[in-house]
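From the shared-data thread, chain only:
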Amino acid sequence: MSIQSITSFLAKIPLWGSLSVVIGIAASVSAQQSNTVSYPADYFMQWNPVTVADMIDRIPGITVALETGQSSRFQNDRGLGSNENILINGQRLSGKDNDAREQLNRIAFDQVERIDIIRGTSTDLVGVRNEGQIINVVTSNLNELSVTVASSLTRYQDGNSEPGASVFFNGSYGDLDYRVSLESRPQYEVLDSHEQSVNGTGDFSPNDIRVFRQITDQTDQIFNSNLSYGITPNQTFTLNLLYQDSDPPRNLERTVLDYDVNPPAVLGERELYDATRENWEIGADYNLSFEDGGQLQLLAINNELDNDLLRDRFLFSATREATRDLSLRNRSVNSEKIYRGVYTRPLVPGHNLEVGMERAQTTLETNLDLSRLNPVTSQLVPVPLPVANSEIEEIRYEGFVVHHWQLNPRMKLESTLTYEVSEISQTGDVEKSRDFDFIRPKLDYRFDITPSLQFQFSIEKFVAQLRFNDFAANTDPRDEERDTVAGNPELRQQQSWRYTTNLEYRFLDSRGVFSFRAWYWDVEDAIGRIDATRPGRPLVSAAGNIGDGEVTAMQINASFRVTPNLLISGTSMMRASEVIDPFTQQERRLVPNDRGFQTIAVRHNLPQWNINYGIDYFDAPQGNRPLFDINRIDHVDNREDLSFFVERNSITSLNLLARFEIRNSLDRGLCSDRFRFDDVISVGNIVEVERRCNERGTQYVLQLRGTF
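Structure, as C-alpha cells:
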C-alpha cells in the first residue's frame, strides 16, 4: 500500500479530504516507528509529586488519553468489553466498577518506574483495545510498605462543612503485590431552584412561582483492594474486592406562589426521600505466558447494586397542617456475572492473532409502587401502573477475533470481527422473551507519518446496549409534575456505523500535543421518547425506537508547555446531529448529542517554593441540549464553570501536600426552558412555559495528603 494510494483514497471522503494534504506533505519525512511515549519517574521529580495522579497532571495532552473510549464505555455498560485507557503494569484492573482514575491516587510516586502513553494498538496488551491512547503505569520498589493518608473538608453554600478521609496501603509481601484502600467520601449537595411559569394560552399571564431547596446528605463508604500474586515467572493471579455503601437521603422544601387563584395563594410542600444504596464486586484475573509468545487471560467478575428509594410528599395549608398526598417507592437490584477468556499469539513476523469469548448474565429486579391521596377518604390509595414489577435478564455471548498486521515499520492495521448473541427475557407484569444476534466488524489503521505525527482512521459497527430501566415503569427525576414514566418491553438496540479519524502531533522534548479528531455516525433505530398512552388514560411516554439519524462532530485538543513549569491546555468540540421527530415529523437534534463545549486549563508550577496553582474553565453554548418528550420540550441553556486551585507539596519530610480548591467559582446555575402542551406536541397547544434555574453554589475544598 503506497502513500499516494492512501492519500488519494482519503481525498474522496469529504470529512477527511483536507487531512490527506497534511499526510501527503509529511509522508516524505522518513522516520522510525514511535508508538509509545515514556516518561521516567525522574522526569517528575522537579515537581515533588505525591501520587501517580500528581504525575500525570504534568503530562501535556493527558486529558486526551483520559477521555479515550468514554463514549463507548458509557453506552456499553453491560459486560466487560475491551476498551480501557488506564493500565497498571500492562494489565487492566480485575474488576469493572473500579474507577481507574481513582486508582492513580492510590499509588505512591516512589513506587513508579515510568508512565507510558501508548499511541497505537499493541500486541502486548491482552484483551485491551486502544481507541486512541492508553496510559500504562509501570511500578517498581514495591518491597516496602507505602501508606498514603488523605483528608478533606468541603464547605457548601448553606454553610455546612463535610469531612472526608482515606488511607491507601501499597506494597509487596514475597510474590504478593497489594493495594488496599478505605475511603469516606462526602457527596453532600445543596440544590437551590427558582422556577417561574406563565400560561401559554395566548396572554402569557403569570401562572406560578416555585422556589425550593433540596439537600442530599450522602457519604460514600468505600473499601477497595487489588491483590496480585506471581505464581511463577509466567503466571499471575489478581483478585479485586470492592464494597461501597451510600445512603443518600434527601430533604426538599418547596414554596409555591399560585396566581391561578384570586387572590394569589402561597402554598408549601415538603418531600422526604429515604434511600439506601449498596454496591459490591468481586473480580478475578489469571494470566499465563507461553514460551512461543502466546498469552492466555481468564477473567471472572460478579457484582451487585441494590437501590431502594422512598419519596413522600406533604402539602401544607395556611395553618401549616401537613397532608401526605404522594408516596412513591422504587426498588431495584442490578446484578452481573461476567466470564471472559482471551488467547493471543504471534503467527508469522508482522502478524498476531487474538481470539476470545465472553459470557455475561445481567439481571434487574425492579418494583415501583405509587399511592396518591383520595380527597374523599383523605387516605393514600395505590395507583395501578403498567409494567411496574419486572425481572429482566439478559444472557449474552460474545466471540471475537482480532488480527494485528504490521504493514511496515510505520503502519499498522488492526481488524476485529465480533459476533454477539443474546437473549433478553422479562417476567412479572409482562412475560416476554426475545433473541438478538449481531456481527460487529471494525478496522483500525495507524500511520506514524513521523515520530511526532500520527494519523489514525477507523470504521466500526457499533451496537449500543439497552438500558434495563427502560423496559419497566420508572421514576422521572427531571419532572416533579410527572411521577413515573412507562416501560417498553419492545425496545430494540440502537445501532450505528462509526467513521473516525484522528491526527495527532507531539512537539519535541515533551513541549506539547496538538490533535484533531472528527467522526461521523450513521445511526439506525435511534432511541428517543414514544407515545405509550393507553386508551382512556392520561398521556404517557416511554423510551422507544424513533428511526434513523446521524451525528457529525469534530474536536480540537491542544496542550502546550509554554515554559518548563507552565502548561496550558484547551479543547473545543463541535457536534451536529439530526433525526426525524416521531411526533412532529420535523428534523431535530438526536438526544443526547449536544452541540459541543470548550475547556481551558492552566497549570503553573513554582518548584522553588513547592507551590502549584491553576484554573479550569468549562463552557457549553446556549441551547446546547434540547430534550423532546411526548407533550413537552426542554431547552437547556449554556453551562459554565470556573474552578481554581493552589497546592503546596513537600511541606515536611513526610512529603505532605496541601491543596485548596474553589469549585464553581462563578456560582452559575443550569437554566432551562420547558414548554408544556395539552396534547402530543404535534397537535397540542402550549399551555405553560416554565423557566427554571438550578444552582449548586460555590464549594470550598481543603485537602491534605501525605505518604509515609
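The CA atoms of residues 227 and 479 lie 45 Å apart.
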